[in-house]
Design goal:
289 residues; mainly alpha; 3 domains; 3-stranded mixed sheet; 3 strands
Length: 289
């Protein structure tokens, strides 16, 4: 049997066992890697051990221990308390503050998953006392934590930076590309005459160029085929070269604070500079930007 297939099967086995037992999936995976690599694949022990991400392991262990101590000794609660006090009783700004807290904590090293786990209990308690919808607070904490996931100190950022360096693509860690999905489905909300427009999750089919047969969200407009091809090609070239591009479409500039370019993806893509200028200036005038 192919060694790659055996490795994937071993990984699947480890995940399944972790779902039905309390056995640590990491320890089990290390044991399976040894069995598959050394005894089945005949690889040298040093080769198998070289695959262990020691730098990432030490980062995760150290940062997790540090923030666990910060939580147990009350430091995290005090930090959150002072951050909420800065909102001066304005319930509308408290979710924004927790978004910023999530982003800052995740960027320091714990990453998005650990940050969400540490911050959510405090955020939910604060939301209950302030009369803030729990769903709104959950969204703000989750998105804030995710925004710091690619920090060079966070686990995800370490992995991504390492892969980019290995593939000869260093220097693009801070490049960001903003897009807006311009394709409209043409369908209407059931029971109304209100256009469906661009509903949430419609972009999933477009990204994978999977729009035939037509679906309720996607609609049956023929333009969906071209829009889907464009989006799939943009994502594929971004994964391959770190610069999104599609044949016959305008160049997609990286986002910066001068141009603030948004790439609108449709059958014919366009670049819109400073698309949300009015909203941004409103938030600036209110003192939030």
């Amino acid at each position: 049997m192919n060694l790659a297939l055996i490795s994937v099967s071993a990984l699947t086995l480890a995940v399944l066992i972790s779902c039905v037992s309390r056995l640590n999936v990491g320890v089990l995976s290390v044991a399976l890697a040894w069995i598959v690599g050394v005894y089945i694949g005949g690889l040298p022990v040093n080769t198998v051990m070289a695959g262990f991400p020691s730098q990432l392991f030490l980062t995760l262990a150290g940062v997790t221990l540090l923030f666990a101590m910060a939580q147990s000794n009350g430091t995290l609660a005090q930090l959150t308390h002072h951050a909420v006090r800065l909102c001066r009783g304005n319930a509308g700004t408290i979710p924004i503050m927790f978004f910023l807290l999530g982003a800052a904590l995740a960027s320091m090293g714990p990453g998005n998953i650990a940050t969400a786990a540490l911050l959510t209990p405090i955020a939910m308690a604060t939301a209950t006392r302030a009369g803030i919808p729990l769903f709104l607070m959950a969204i703000m904490v989750g998105n804030g934590a995710n925004s710091g996931a690619l920090s060079p100190f966070a686990p995800t950022g370490i992995i991504v930076n390492g892969i980019m360096a290995k593939n000869g693509l260093p220097g693009h860690e801070t490049a960001a590309y903003l897009y807006n999905l311009g394709y409209k489905s043409g369908e209407k909300v059931p029971g109304t005459d209100y256009p469906m427009g661009t509903p949430h999750a419609m972009d999933i089919g477009l990204k994978f160029n999977n729009v035939t047969p037509s679906t309720f969200l996607m609609g049956d407009r023929p333009e969906r085929l071209v829009a889907s091809h464009n989006m799939a090609e943009l994502w594929a070239t971004f994964a391959r070269t770190s610069r999104p591009a599609a044949a016959g479409q305008p160049a997609w500039p990286a986002y910066d604070l001068t141009r603030r370019a948004t790439y609108r993806i449709d059958a014919q893509c366009t670049v819109i500079d400073d698309r949300n200028r009015a909203e941004r200036e409103m938030w600036r005038d209110l003192g939030f930007v």
